[in-house]
């Protein structure tokens, strides 16, 4: 059971470079989320999606773009990376009919921007 | 005011101690709340859900105070394995978004 898979798990970028983080889930979940976590801080919501073809901004969306072309995939893009985007990125998914509040997380992607 | 605020911690307690964390939220319309546990360098995992007045699961008790807009997590008879960061989570935007608090770190020592 793969659950939620994030790729890549580690990446080092130079300032100004672009990259895309891929999140794939095999649980047929409608809702998908991208969070970032910095030292001493909780998870902050970047963008989220409540279904294929729809996305919405979270708490800290600036500098990121997302796409949900397929239900199982949620892509997070950095067009021009900045050192402030050095962080651990977590993708998560859940079913809208599930009121337990359980988010299924990937293992995280550690991004360093030099 | 932040949507979700937690005790900053860290809490350093001996094995067997009882410890409690608080979390305040700003959205009075929120109906359900959640506690997640996060081990070092791992992804968060759901610990407990709180829907009405509270919830109990073994050594863990979560309570909700709607009037004061806070939830609490009580851990009795602390174990070394309870050492982790505990994250308070509150739905927002009609339950579409789940907003995390900054987390409270617990360290249980022998």
Q: How is this structure best described in words?
A:
The complex is a heterodimer of chains A (114) and B (110). By secondary structure, chain A is an all-beta fold. Chain A contains no helices and eleven strands. In chain A, strand 7 and strand 8 form a beta hairpin. The model of chain A has no long low-confidence stretch (mean pLDDT 93). By secondary structure, chain B is mainly beta. Helix content of chain B is 0%, strand content 55%. Chain B contains no helices and eleven strands. In chain B, a hairpin with a 6-residue loop joins strand 4 and strand 5. The termini of chain B are far apart. Classes of the chains: A mainly beta (114), B mainly beta (110). Chains A and B meet through strand 4 and strand 5 of A and strand 5, strand 9 and strand 10 of B.
Structural classification of chain A: mainly beta
Using only C-alpha atoms, the radius of gyration of chain A works out to 13 Å
Parts with pLDDT < 50 across at least 5 consecutive residues of chain B: none
What is the string of helix and strand elements of chain B? EEEEEEEEEEE
Q: What value does the Rg of chain B take, in angstroms?
A: 13 Å
Tally of DSSP β-strands of chain B: 11
Shape of chain A: globular
Number of strands of chain A: 11
Q: Which percent range describes the beta-strand content of chain B?
A: over 45%
| H/I helix tally of chain B | 0
Oligomer: heterodimer
Please state the average pLDDT score of chain B: 90
Give the termini distance of chain B in whole angstroms.
38 Å
Number of helices of chain A: 0
Biggest sheet architecture of chain A: 7 strands, mixed
Q: What are the low-pLDDT stretches of chain A, counting only 5+ consecutive residues below 50?
A: none
Strand content of chain A: over 45%
Largest sheet report of chain B: 6 strands, mixed
